Amino acid sequence: MSFNDEGLGPPLPTSTTDRPAPERPRPSPRLLKVRKLIERCYADPLSAGRMARHAGFTATELRRQFAACYDCTPEAYLIACRMRAAEALLALGRTEHNVALLVGYTSYRRYLGDRQRHQRSQRIAAGEAALREFLQR
């Protein structure tokens, strides 16, 4: 089971133009392997190089193919997985410092920065969706 299958994946960037979005290529088994690694090991120190080696890619090739299939980089997907886990832990009453360590951050400051960027991107995506809905009326 993956996060996107349950509607929990990172918000997919959307366009506000009228043209239809181009179809994304189907992910290869190697890309699925990377995605599962991220979902399973989000709390581990995963670099682009480590993720790429896991599936037999170069880091650049992995970023390019992952972005083409999932509309985000592997690093952005890793952050989204960490943020989902952090939200669940915060809902259970854990402290932010504790949560930062549990989801894979070695620096509380880095966690806060990623969290703010993630929340901002979610608000932007929600605003674009509301604007599209309004314009379609």
Reported by name, the CATH topology is Arc Repressor Mutant, subunit A
What can be said about the biggest beta sheet?
none
Q: What is the terminal-to-terminal distance?
A: 36 Å
How many domain modules?
Answer: 1
- The shape, in one word, is flat
Give the class from helix and strand content and strand pairing: mainly alpha
Task: Give me the CATH architecture, please.
Answer: Orthogonal Bundle
Number of helices: 6
Secondary-structure element pattern, one letter each: HHHHHH
CATH superfamily: Homeodomain-like
Strand content range = under 5%
Question: In the CATH hierarchy, what is the class?
Answer: Mainly Alpha
Helix content: 55-70%
Summed over residues and divided by their number, the pLDDT gives a mean of 87
Low-confidence region ranges: 1-8, 12-16
Strand runs, count: 0
The radius of gyration is 16 Å
Provide tags for this entry.
mainly alpha; Arc Repressor Mutant, subunit A; 62% helix; 137 residues; disordered N terminus
Detailed description of the structure:
The protein has helices at residues 29-40, 48-55, 59-70, 74-91, 96-102, 108-135. Helix 1 (29-40) runs parallel beside helix 4 and helix 2 (48-55) crosses helix 3. It has six helices and no strands. Helix content is 62%, strand content 0%. The chain is mainly α and 137 residues long.
